[in-house]
Batch of 4 targets.
Target 1
Amino acid sequence: MEIGELGKFAEDLARGAGEILRGNYGRRQSIHYKGEINLVTEVDRQSEAYIMGRIRSAFPDHGILSEESPEIRSPSPYRWIVDPLDGTTNYAHNYPCFCVSIAVERKGELLAGAVFDPLLEESFTATPGKGAFRNGERIHVSATENLRQSLLATGFAYDVKTSRDNNLEFFREFVFTGQAIRRDGSAALDMCYLACGRFDGFWELKLRPWDTAAGLLILTEAGGVATRLDGSPYDIHQPDILASNGRIHGQMLAVVEKTKGEPP
Ligand code: IPD
Ligand code: CA
Ligand code: CA
């Protein structure tokens, strides 16, 4: 299958799984706790079973890394990276901000990304070199030049209550240096909102490959930039990310650098 078709398949999967999320939204969920505040619902699992089932029947030899299941390793160069429900805490509280995130890579290179928000019916997609799209329309990052005028997004990991490395210092500093911050609870949507110019910058400390794989391709194809917090190259296997429209990237890195230098 060529890259364009893989992209269409990824989008179709994300839309199909999104229908499962939408259909069950607002119903009482049976919740299982993976940690004190880290939960998984029956719907995460239903969405994952749907996505994995379709990948397995279309591409029986491909690997799959999906959040709620052990990784399916394969000698194939192709691997799917899946978050069947990004924003589970929101979903469980009936807060309408969540999505499905699906990417496929070949030998570690992202070939297609699809993020679908089933409530707003927004489908963000990208393939390398072909640009990024929202419901088929080309999207671009914002033109904001100054951190002071920037709407930023971030999130907190599930160990926020027990880890010293909890993002609160950076949050405090960006409250003072940016225009405003949103913490909306779906890292994949945060990256897509950055890609289409709603946000100007985004950072988080402890993300996993399924949170960022699709969003990273969508963001870079929309003209955005992603590094680690120290400015070194970012890839989806790194925990920390600082992403922006490119124009405010240096200003955000400077805030991080200054904050790290300060005593806690
Ligand atoms: C979480 C969300 C959230 C981010 C967390 C993620 P989940 O994913 O993306 O925005 O702050 O770090 O773990 O658990 O809802 O799939
Ligand atoms: Ca996630
Ligand atoms: Ca998830």
Target 2
Amino acid sequence: MGAKKRIGILTSGGDCAGLNAVIRAVTHCAISVHGWEVIGICKATLGLMTNPPQLMHLDVNKVDRWLTMGGTMLGTTNKGDPFAFPMADGSVKDRSQEIIDNYHQLGLDALIGIGGDGSLAILRKLAQQGGINLIGIPKTIDNDVGATERSIGFDTAVNIATEALDRLHFTAASHNRVIIVEVMGRDAGHIALNAGIAGGAHVILIPEIPYKLENIATYLTKRQAEGQDYSVIVVSEAVCSENGQPIQQMQAFGQARLGGIGQYLAEKIADLTNAETRVTVLGHTQRGGISSPLDRILASSFGVAAVELIAQEKYDQMVVWQNRQVDYVPIAEAIKNYRNVDSEGTLVKTARGLGICLGD
Ligand code: F6P
């Protein structure tokens, strides 16, 4: 066993299922295998911007039942870039040094940051500036972090969306309706494509494949003519209007958020086909609840691998799932490329082979 270490762990960005399973795995491995100390940092980097810092001392007993729990027991934020932090008086301030100073004052030997590409980019910038020994763990229901085939939270989100589709088939069929299910995923169509195939959707629309309303209408009308008097459509939240306009909702503080494509399609399809349409927006249900077994396995494997990288003092790395196993790559390389759906890839070919309409 090497020298005793004191490591920090934080969750950053939008929550998802599986985060607590990672924290549990890191705590178990760091304490039980290596005899280290594990400090949870609350609310992402916000927890290191206060004095005293907001911390949660982690031990094996505390985390033992966290395996299945949704959300993050450490809290998180997807706002407040410390390099341009929005202050109460409306000004913007670089608060990066406060975080770096607190990391060193806490005597941390390393920091594990669980985040998506945006969070990992910010954490890496802090690490480079302040000599923080950083290890990244990819999480996001969007599954869009480069270099890893899977990110924590994605499988659970696909399970939730698939279950919704399974349920909606019955009610759509009972009323001869077209039901449109809007799913999350930001600019990547992974949730829509995976859940669409698993949940037997008749139409799948993703941002990576431009569509024509006329193609969808023709497909639905043909289904109807063949005696299939209902249809289920899954659409990814970042799909644009037919002429390429992003569909967004304005929130408080002038922030735009994706959302509304389901309603847009419902109106257009009703006009074009005379079908009765209904919309289900799954929203944050896709991030909540008990994590799937696959996410628990991924989270556990990533947590253990992150601790082993620290034991070897290999920093500035992100753990990844590649070719059926855990590996690691430099964080810079991992976040360089955004991973969206390959429009010529296996799953798109599968959908086409099943006769699913992709709108093109
Ligand atoms: O990145 C994860 C994600 O859930 C996206 O799929 C979605 O567009 C966004 O976060 C929602 O963010 P918020 O929680 O701020 O509404």
Target 3
Amino acid sequence: MPAELQKAPPRLHRSSAPKPDPGIVHLGFGAFFRAFGTIYIEDAVKASGGDWGIIGVSLRSPDTRDRLAPQDWTYTSVELAPGGEKLRQVEIIREVLVAPEDPEIVLSRMSDPTIRIVSLTVTEKGYCHDPATGRLNPDHPDILHDLENPLPVSAPGFLVRALQRRRAAGQLPFTVLTCDNLPGNGVLVRGIVLDFARQLDPALADWIETEGRFPSTMVDRITPATKPEDIDRLATATGVLDEAPVLHEPFRQWVVEDDFVTGYGEDARPDLAVSGVEMVGDVTPYEHMKLRMLNGTHSALAYLGYLAGHETISETVADPVFAIFVNRLWREEIMPSFTPPAGIDLGEYAKALFERYANPAIRHRTWQIAMDGSQKLPQRILGTIADDLKTGRPCPGLILAVAAWMRYVGGIDENDQVIDVRDPLADRLRALSDGADIPKTKVTALLSVREIFNADLAEQLAGPVTQAYCRLLGLGTRKALETLA
Ligand code: CS2
């Protein structure tokens, strides 16, 4: 090959379009927010103006900053439709900071009066809370650290320390806009922030309680992790190297409670509605629908699909046993458990979800979704089971999913291969599973983890989950699913 054809393609760079000044700091600058919130916000600014440039903050690794810096913070969003890809260059990012390298600069940006919103996607475990109760976990090592040190490491620590500086400087607080898949996410983060603040300074907690705003949100867009081969493929297609593209499905939905810090008036938030965000008074019915219908079945398919040897969600639902299973879960076990938002036909919603899962262009790994199950099960699956049990509705599919999670965190798959279990409680879960020698005692041991299962539910689940666990062991996953049908 001639030498000039072997040269690396030029790096992606920003266009000369004017940039809005920063108005938002975003904590947890992963692929999801870069494929979702940034795009809505950029559209809102294009349509209605406003200084809503975004400062991204990575709470752990420098990787995203290192990839974006040489591109002047711009990147490509790649929309993966079954019929082909659509590319768009996102230019709303002003800067990316890496908190562990310089927590002081993060706090100083967050306490700058031009910042009116701090949004978050720090994943479930980033809230340092107890998933079963939704309260701050006071024994969390990061929380213990942050209560003692003015330069924090945790998301709650950054929020409270920055609010403390703003109060001391006589400024208004920022609106805290959580975009994680947690139930009542605004109420939850508010409770966590207040718990933390109260331990630091009760007067600060009182100020946050009256002045602070924590709208709840429902966020939805499937965003599989970007792989090195995606970067290569994009570079070949465009002739330009982007080291930080994000891949996502065409579908998106963002529902936000319209409750922002009032003192900023019109300038409290971007004109989100103009870019398609649904601004509502109460997000609860949307969030129930999304967490139970989408995330609940995502997790069920992730554990069962992984155990059955499927690599991605689209492969899993292409297997007829799983297609029947997931439709049955929606219809018989999940849809009857909650009241949908007004005007939404849940049958249609489920049909659309199935099509989204089946999209072969989305290679969303079961292993990726299986991560952090201890933080996800309560709001995705256990709440639905509890509601089903309350009304005497059978839920064998969800119970099988809990048993599959137990098999999964046991760390060995159906072919005796080691599973790379990623979960903040992984070691403890593995030890509980290994420490018991028969299914009944393994299941009881795992049900005793109070951060996940409350005592009442654990008692009700012991018998049925043990049976389901035995079926998975005895028959294998696919056969166990067939017996359900
Ligand atoms: C997934 C979600 O990784 C997971 O646990 O269930 O990230 C899911 O793709 C999004 O919530 C879709 O909006």
Target 4
Amino acid sequence: MQDYQAPAELLKNRIILVTGAGDGIGRAAAKTFAAYGATVLLVGRTIKKLEAVYDEIEAAGHPQPAICPINLEGATSKDYDDLANTIQQEFGRLDGLLHNAGQLGTLTPIEQYDTETWNKLLQVNLTAPFLMTQALIPLLRESGDASVIFTSSSVGRKARAYWGAYAVSKFGTEGLMQVLADELDDEHNNIRVNSINPGATRTNMRAHAYPAENPIHNPTPEQIMPVYLYLMGSDSQGVTGQMFDAQKKQP
Ligand code: NAP
């Protein structure tokens, strides 16, 4: 899917929510989806960053996005219900949901791993996507052709020492993706559910995880967008429960 070439109007009239839309991969995804015609709902915790993305999308002449400030660390079911009600009132449906926001925590042996950091990572990376998805499923059903994408990691498929709660949260994310995909895999729902491992990508998170690495060797978020477009658009209809790698050629 690295080679996927999206048609210019792939996402025309689609309503797509992106979490962590203010920075890194989420920022690139929000701008890319808008460039292919989507109305993008920008979810994140730093309003200034979301406003900057909003302004860039507007300046480029793409469909007007919307800003939905949510801190995934403290958000409750009620916050997600309020989000769903707002989307229901404004659009009546949701066509795409990209769970992208995430935190790294610390690279620490399990023996010394701090409980507070553990709980925060599980909350932001795993429980928040669960709660948000649960609240938004009725709206995704209204789409008739909806796509949910979870964001994984290579350590969410094969763990490595010191990656602690981050790795465990990404294994949980793959599990959530598979359970949900199986539950929704019928014609009545028309909701496909997949995960993407972005691979090493030039963002702040990567720089924190690998401070000694020269970032120039990693692709930019914009360069890994083909698989995101493929899964958000109608070319992936019927594809569900699959794990994708943004930087590998799919067989
Ligand atoms: P990033 O540059 O650090 O961006 C993370 C985004 O998540 C930011 O917009 C951040 O908002 C948001 N976020 C963090 N905590 C949040 C919270 N409590 N509530 C709401 N939003 C929150 O990271 P990235 O590299 O783009 O990562 C995006 C996704 O790809 C993550 O799920 C990550 O695990 C995954 N991933 C990345 C790589 C890589 O090499 N970059 C590799 C594998 C997987 P603020 O800017 O406001 O903090």
